[in-house]
Amino acid sequence: MESAKVLFGLLLVVCIGFLRGANGQLHGDLRSCPANDVKCNNTDVCIVPSVRCDGRNDCGDWEDERDCPTPPPESGCGSPSVQRGMSDIIHSTNFPYDNYTDQATCKWDIFVPTGYHVKVEFLPIFDIEDDVTGQCRRDAVYIYDTDLNHLVGQYCGSNIPPPMGLSSNHAMVTFKSDYSHTGKGFGLHWFAVVPTATTPSPTLSTVPPTPASTCNGVIRLDGKSGLIASPGYSLTTSAHYPPSANCGWQIIGPPASKIVLHFEDFMLENSPNCSMDSLSIYDGFDETASLLGTLCGKYRPGDVVSSDRQLFIRFFSDGGVEGRGFHITWTTTSTLTTSAAVTHTTPVPGEGCDGHPRLLTSSSGVVTSPGYDGTSSYLGLQACQWLITVPQGEVIDIKFTDFEMEWARDCDYDFVAIYDDDFSKAKEMLCGQRLPLDFTSTSHTVLVKFTSDAEVGGVGFNLTYTSHPPRRACTSAEYTCKNGRCIPYDLVCNGLWNCFDGDDELICPNNPQCGRPVIQPHLDSHRVVGGREGVEGSWPWQVSVRLSGKHLCGGTLIDPYWVLCAAHCFQSNWRTTEWSVMVGQQELMTSSPHQQLLNVSKIITRHDYDDVTSANDVALIKLAQPTKVGRYVNVACLAPVTLPPGEVCYITGFGETLSTCCAGKLKQAAVPLISTNKCNLPDWYDGQVLDTMVCAGYENGGSDACGGDSGGPLACEIGGHWVVYGITSWGISCAGAKNPGVYIQVANYLKWIQETIAKHS
Q: What CATH number did the domain enclosing 614 receive?
């Protein structure tokens, strides 16, 4: 089926090329886009012609901004003069941390889609020079309702103007300042709202309310509850919904009620922007109402709640791949009394996601994506904003406890953006499954934005924030204690508690018990391809890192609670609940009385890990329970040492052997270190090995780490202790000539390892 889809895609490209003119312009497609709209060639998104060359990524791949004659005009306050879309923020220069400039002239033309009206709402910081007349003749912000061609109001002083709903889809905002006396300025959130005017109704066919799974036009469902299913839906058989389906359901509840949709099952073909198969939910009578979300993929969405007694659902499928479909139960709840039946639901949109930024002024709190429960996926087409403001002189710490979103290299689709000192440029753009690092602001105000496109991409996020007076950042020559105190790094591991709780003595090279196996390994010249089976218990720090119960990577036990591993092991899945660690094991397929299976509580990687160059390919795994150290389980040493080329070390792991020996068993191989200069020769790795890496192996091949060994140790014996010298990272082939294994040199990351373990212990 996949090959058929690829062929279909190639045919589609040929057709698109036919429709695209010689100048590469977007093409119209009356079959799938509203009248007068045009379709983007690569993403199938429908846009109005006026948004071409407006400086915004309306197509999703910047196609509408290519071959433009001139860049869009600038407002005079640092943002584009033309503002288009459903929601955004504009503001005076330097807002909210410094005063705006003298003699400023800024202008914004705001356009929302046809069928919507503009509404504006000022942010809670408003500080513009006043004058004694009260008529704002010096500095002022002006709001114009373009459809009525008149000035709605001009505002100055410190009183926040009220929200304003305008009468068309076009508004104009200007800001002017004179030559003296400035203030913090203003921030203004503009957004699209559905006007109250009524619209023509579609032709309806009325059928019994349960079950509703056919596709004869629009099905009207009345009452207090019912079921909706995709055509042919069955949970017990392999039946799929048909291709080219076009189904509509209009739900009308009793007066003074809201409609609650609960997804019992959901599986539609996944695609960018849900352009193949999709389920769209509208907050009203028909498809002219506000779109609550467009869904596809395998994630079961959370509950959806209407704002009134009407809800419209539209299901489309293309001519290709089909899924199992969906099964929805719908109920109604009275708006006159609070019903316990829906206390588990979160209205969509919720606070901060209804076109109004949510203001948070407490010293600590929690922010989550709409409907977050840790298991269900968030809805598409969300635009949420939270403005965290604490007393001046304090800063804000943000810590994520859960994070899962659709991934893109530049976070173009779904993302969390964090703004600090400049609301026009995000300090952090976050997406994917990787738990973000903690963030500390430089000021007392932080803006958090959450945006999702039409395709559902994960369970969302959960973050906590706290405020405190600013602390001095430690220098590179200092060690950061768990409580934030800075001490000279040369005091770490000196046997004294220089940090308040002694976390500077947690991970130390001078640990007398580390790297000393009770059962000694057999060290010989056997050249873990071309190696030999290790003696059981002789490498007691070797662990098996498992995803969904299956071995995926190796790792090194460096503390009863901590395992050292490689960041690339977790690129496909960052959810700790699906990972586990096995220690004390000799053979993957055979249980041992010495083995211990441990759950994972945290996965921490270097924030600067690069999956292209493998730079900083380091990860730490915190175990939910401590390992029981003994004869068959022990920790390896860490040490800030650099060894010369030719020094023989050992690699261990459960990985691929290319049929040389002992599949699925713990293996060892002796490998000499190779200089980085030699490893970077043109016929070797041609400059790909970084200074923070080390090569180990043989010029003619024969011994190497291989698939399944990633993340495991390159261990060297120094002074009677085995030290983790490297982390297995990458290579071109297993045991190939002039393609030795490449390892992350642990000594370069010792301080990061120590500080990270201290912070999370």
A: 2.40.10.10
Same domain, yes or no: 429 and 559: no
Helices within 332-427 (DSSP H only): none
pTM, 2 dp: 0.53
The annotation status of 74 as a binding-site residue, yes or no, is no
Catalytic residue among 230, 275, 544, 710: 710
DSSP string, 29-78: -TTTS-TT-EE-TTT--EE-GGGTTSSS-SSSSSGGGTT-SSPPPB-SSS
Q: Which of 28-37, 46-55, 499-508, 702-711 has the lowest mean pLDDT?
A: 28-37
Judge whether 648 lies within some domain: yes
Phi-psi region of 169 (alpha: psi -120 to 50; beta: other; left: phi over 0): alpha
Residues 604 and 712 in one domain: yes
Give the E-state strand segments of 560-663 in sequence order.
562-565, 579-583, 596-605, 619-623, 648-653
pLDDT tens per residue across span 584-628 = 999 888 888 999 999 999 999 998 888 889 999 999 999 999 999
Report the pLDDT value the prediction gives residue 530, as an integer from 0 to 100.
53
Range of the domain at 497: 479-505
Can you count the helices (H) and strands (E) in the chain?
A: 3, 45
Residue-wise pLDDT for 325-375, tens only, equals 888 888 888 776 433 333 333 334 456 787 778 889 888 889 999 888 888
Distance of CA 262 to the CA centre of its chain: 25
453 is in an annotated binding site: yes
Query: Are 365 and 334 members of one domain?
Result: no
pLDDT in tens, 288-306: 888 888 888 776 777 788 8
3-state secondary structure 277-338: CEEEEECCCCCCCCEEEEECECCCECCEECCCCEEEEEEECCCCCCCCEEEEEEEEEECCCC
Catalytic residue among 617, 704, 721, 729: 617
- 263 and 188 in a single domain? The answer is no
Residue 710: active-site member: yes
Residue 479 pairs in a beta bridge with 487
Query: Can you give the C-alpha Rg of the chain in angstroms?
Result: 30
- Reported as half-sphere exposure (CB side, CA atoms, 13 A), residue 325 has a value of 23
Residue 368 CA: distances (Å) to CA of 307, 373, 447: 21, 9, 14
Catalytic site residue 617? yes
Q: Residue 519: which of 581, 588, 587, 594 has the closest Cα? A: 594
Q: Is 414 annotated as a binding residue?
A: yes
Query: Is 410 annotated as contributing to ligand binding?
Result: no
Please state, in angstroms and rounded to a whole number, the distance separating the CA atoms of residues 499 and 505: 9
Report how far residue 704's alpha carbon sits from residue 735's, in angstroms, rounded to the nearest whole number. 5
Burial class (CB in 10 A: 0-12, 13-18, 19+), 147: middle
Structure token pair of residue 358:
């949510």
Q: How many domains does the chain have?
A: 6
Label residues 313-331 b or e (16+ Cβ within 10 Å = b).
Answer: bbbbbbebbbbbbbbbebb
Beta pairing partners, 623: 600
**How far is 543 from 586, CA to CA, in rounded Å?**
10
User: Is 321 assigned to a binding site?
Assistant: yes
| Max Cα distance, the chain (Å) | 93
Q: How far does Cα 605 stand from its chain's mean position? A: 15
Mean pLDDT across 14-28: 34
Q: Please state, in angstroms and rounded to a whole number, the distance separating the CA atoms of residues 55 and 82.
A: 8
Both 244 and 376 in one domain: the answer is no
Query: Of residues 544, 568, 580, 721, which has the active-site annotation?
Result: 568
Tell me, yes or no, whether 350 lies in a domain.
no
**How far, in Å, CA of 705 to CA of 695, rounded?**
11
d(C-alpha 29, C-alpha 436), whole Å: 41
Specify whether the backbone of 263 is left (phi greater than 0), alpha (psi in -120 to 50) or beta: beta
